[in-house]
Amino acid sequence: xxxxxxxxxxxxxxxxxxxxxxxxxxxxxxxxxxxxxxxxxxxxxxxxxxxxxxxxxxxxxxxxxxxxxxxxxxxxxxxxxxxxxxxxxxxxxxxxxxxxxxxxxxxxxxxxxxxxxxxxxxxxxxxxxxxxxxxxxxxxxxxxxxxxxxxxxxxxxxxxxxxxxxxxxxxxxxxxxxxxxxxxxxxxxxxxxxxxxxxxxxxxxxxxxxxxxxxxxxxxxxxxxxxxxxxxxxxxxxxxxxxxxxxxxxxxxxxxxxxxxxxxxxxxxxxxxxxxxxxxxxxxxxxxxxxxxxxxxxx
Length: 299
Prior knowledge:
alpha/beta; five-stranded mixed sheet; 5 helices; 60% helix; elongated
């Protein structure tokens, strides 16, 4: 059985670890709140973009764009796929990274020729360790995503898409449905279905027809580039929020376990200390008794 010194040393170690996990919990909650505020500030702009895309399709039903399936339907597109995989830079976030990697491996099983575009140190390390080739790895951190980084990712993906290097673009990210649950999703980014921008609401009739300069196709393609950037930015923010939420949950569990462990160690420490005191009292009593017996014999 461990002595009091060893138990006391372990208690101090657990207390120090609890300080770290509690600090990580507070930092994660602050980052989560800041990321949500950033997303809320940019959301109205992209909602306005989507409204304009809907308006274009209401006025020009036969408009053609490389970012959409043909109006006749959704034929099967033959060719390679591209996939943007969004992971974290660090662990200590429960099953957050593992769920994203699981979705990515499932897609690679179905489409082995998929080109991977990876955000996050965890994903880069995993694919490198398992000798899985990556088409592009974004070396900047996955922490604190910005609109500028989303535009850089969008430009690289659209450049390959416009060249015809791949026919579809997917995004694997983690969506935080609420404060308690989040799940990894594999979402097709391009091409869009036209039904995605259809609406049941009817706007007030416009007597003056819309004029598109230089053309409706050029206007739509320009808007879609901004819309895709917004979609990627939203995915980065959602993943970042999910990571911080998962880390908060993990750190909260660690704090609870530390409290339980401290209670058990304190109880064990008191038992060992009481046993040591009892042993000392017994030894003192036995020594005193022996001295009394010795004095009697001498008398």
